[in-house]
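Supplementary notes for students who missed Thursday's class. We covered one full example, reproduced here. Read the sequence, then the structure, then the short commentary at the end.
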Amino acid sequence: MEQEFHRIRRLPPYVFAEVNRMKARARAAGEDIIDFGMGNPDQPTPQHIVDKLCETANNPKTHAYSNSRGIPGLRKALSAYYERRWDVSIDPETECIVTLGSKEGLANLASAITSPGDVILVPNPSYPIHQFGFIIAGAAVRNVPVSTGEEFFESLERAVNHSVPKPSLLVINYPNNPTAEIADLAFYEAVVDYCRHHGIYVLSDVAYSEIYFDDNPPPSMLQVKGAKDICVEFTSMSKTYNMPGWRIGFAAGNPHLIAALTRIKSYLDYGAFTPIQVAAAAALNGPQDCVDAIRALYKERRDVLIDGLGAAGWDVPSPPATMFAWAPLPPAFAHLGSLEFSKLLLREAQVAVSPGIGFGEHGDGHVRLALVENEHRSRQAIRSIKKFMNNYQDVLEDAEKRRAGSP
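Structure (token representation):
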């Protein structure tokens, strides 16, 4: 017997799966694929963090069930980080919680606070969990632009005036994945002012707050006076400390939302493995030169990739933050859409990227490139892309024949 499951029916086919299957087939055939697709850091976790993990794991007492909301030492370390980084006071008992990566935290908060039919405002394009965490929980999602200008607030006003029921929560993400757009404190102040007035909670994702390339570190929404009345902020160890597989993240801010997440997590997990939490505390409390080095590496890779693509005839804006470049489709290929272009680039140039349609329909004119290949590999990819661009007429003609099934 096979049944259709309601929540699964609400999820579209995973766009990235088709590109991933193509990558797997190409590699199985012996092709060397240069992969800018997934934002998976390629550098090792800093050694002092690994050492603390090993030291703690050697103590058999740490192999018991842990604390669902995070061990006290890690919550205190996060509180100290907010104080040091943003001059924001976070109560480690009531205003923060440790999550199994920010993705799990976002999904569980959505489950905790969403009722079927609630209207949630989510940027488009956006990281998929921002939208689908709430869709899985039964919400109706309404899109707002990623822009931090008047367009954003006009969209917010339309949503409040024309949604039934009125929106209950707004999701924002700066520095943004996938677009790399950044926000300033004035934008956050305006968002807090508007959402407090209309009784709308705000979920702010700042997972890329430490990956920036100028002299102005991205702000936190919690710096705004009164933000804790409505806002919870998610961050992660994954990109800042090259710890993606460790699955450690945090939520901080509004005590009511933190309590809701704490309660639902108490039914779902026993927290991350204690040695991982101890090592994460060592990362936050320890020397931060490793973070500076990670940031510098991404900046070097960004410059090599953006300059090289420009010389190859593909003009891509230089991202001010994150580990991604948000690349508009080259004009000659724009009619294909992002998925077909990504497949064509993989087949013809052996370069993998993420199709923008995977981040929402408003991303379809772009692809996302992750800065996860070293400079040598990036230059190799640029050479292949330049050849691909120079032969675009033949490439497109061949692609049309393939689609038509011609020999």
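Commentary. Residues 260 and 349 are 48 Å apart (CA to CA). The chain has a mean pLDDT of 93. If anything here is unclear, bring it to office hours.
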